[in-house]
């Protein structure tokens, strides 16, 4: 079978079976590599990469000292990674990932070292990181490398935005982007850029879940010492209200074909849950993403949502912005509302039967 025929067949299978980009890649490779063999190949590739990088950087930096030498070495490592990605083999993909990350980090180190250790120099470094990650995302590479590049793009954008209300809006925008992309998964699954869209979707999902920690000032202040990302400048209203709006949007889109009474009830319950859980916006975000992921049929992320929700409950418990009694009453009220809705749905189902 020729390459064009194989690509056409894979397009048809992806459209009919709603295959992921990773599943399409495995089918195109001809066979699925066992997990233990993939792990051994990955370990061997990273060991080989470390040895290669050490043997290359040592003599190179000894011959060409200073900023120019490090910058050229970073560019050469990235070019070598691009060449390895074109081989499309498990070993070369892992080795290319190691070389790409090393070259990327070396270029960022050159710029940071040149500008000094002032916190204001984070933005030029983040801008360079954004440009490099964007360029590497559009080049042929592996599934894991695309996800790393997409995550670096979004993180660099967050550093460029800074702190305060702008970063809160960025967190809400990421949550909305992740939910919209998951809800529209069937539309972009067959797109020519589906692999990159999937990487951006996963990266937006992960980073939005991590940014949900930011409103918890007391906990996050001890976790992060970068002033640019400090949570003390966050508004108490922007992020919870934005995440609540995302939940309402997801429920409104999913229930757009239901009856008027049930549709209105779903919107009212969503608004009430968002209001009761305003002190733990991570729980609201987990619920919104879980609904979108269930619609998209992604079992991996869907299985992770309860773990994230449990973690946000843990964070809420140790937050000091409200009393423990207040937290308990809010969670009890939220649970009562959800149980009442579940009971109502069960009774409606019995009457229809």
From TrEMBL:
- Taxonomy, superkingdom: Bacteria
Q: Where are the transmembrane segments?
A: 35-61, 67-85, 97-115, 121-139, 151-183, 237-255, 267-294, 301-322, 328-346
Spell out the Pfam families in the cross-references: DUF4401 (PF14351)
Q: Which keywords does this chain's UniProt record carry?
A: Membrane, Transmembrane, Transmembrane helix
DUF4401 domain ranges (all copies): 34-344
- What name goes with this protein? DUF4401 domain-containing protein
Q: Which organism is it from?
A: Halopseudomonas salina
Q: What is the lineage of its organism?
A: Bacteria, Pseudomonadati, Pseudomonadota, Gammaproteobacteria, Pseudomonadales
């Amino acid at each position: 079978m020729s390459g064009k025929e194989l690509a056409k067949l894979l397009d048809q299978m992806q459209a009919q079976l709603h295959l992921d980009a990773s599943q399409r890649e495995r089918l195109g490779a001809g066979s699925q590599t066992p997990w233990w063999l993939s792990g051994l190949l990955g370990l061997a590739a990273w060991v080989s990469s470390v040895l290669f990088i050490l043997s290359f950087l040592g003599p190179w930096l000894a011959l060409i000292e200073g900023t120019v030498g490090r910058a050229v070495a970073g560019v050469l490592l990235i070019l070598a990674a691009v060449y390895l990605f074109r081989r499309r083999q498990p070993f070369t993909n892992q080795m290319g990932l190691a070389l790409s990350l090393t070259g990327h980090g070396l270029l960022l180190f050159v710029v940071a070292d040149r500008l000094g250790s002032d916190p204001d120099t984070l933005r030029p470094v983040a801008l360079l990181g954004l440009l490099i990650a964007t360029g590497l995302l559009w080049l042929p590479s592996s599934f894991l490398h695309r996800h790393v590049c997409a995550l670096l793009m979004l993180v660099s954008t967050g550093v460029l935005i800074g702190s305060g209300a702008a970063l809160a809006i960025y967190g809400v925008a990421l949550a909305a982007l992740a939910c919209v992309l998951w809800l529209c998964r069937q539309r972009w699954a067959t797109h020519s850029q589906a692999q990159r869209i999937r990487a951006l979707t996963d990266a937006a999902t992960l980073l939005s879940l991590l940014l949900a920690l930011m409103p918890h000032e007391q906990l996050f202040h001890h976790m992060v010492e970068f002033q640019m990302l400090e949570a003390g400048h966050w508004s108490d209203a922007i992020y919870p209200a934005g995440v609540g709006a995302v939940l309402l949007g997801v429920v409104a889109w999913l229930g757009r074909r239901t009856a008027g009474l049930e549709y209105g009830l779903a919107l009212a319950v969503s608004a009430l849950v968002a209001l009761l859980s305003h002190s733990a916006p991570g729980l609201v975000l987990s619920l919104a993403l879980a609904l979108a992921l269930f619609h998209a049929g992604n079992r991996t992320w869907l299985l992770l949502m309860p773990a994230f929700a449990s973690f946000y409950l843990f964070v809420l418990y140790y937050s000091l912005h409200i009393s423990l009694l207040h937290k308990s009453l809010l969670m009890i009220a939220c649970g009562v509302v959800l149980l009442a809705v579940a009971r109502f749905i069960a009774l409606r189902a019995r009457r229809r039967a």
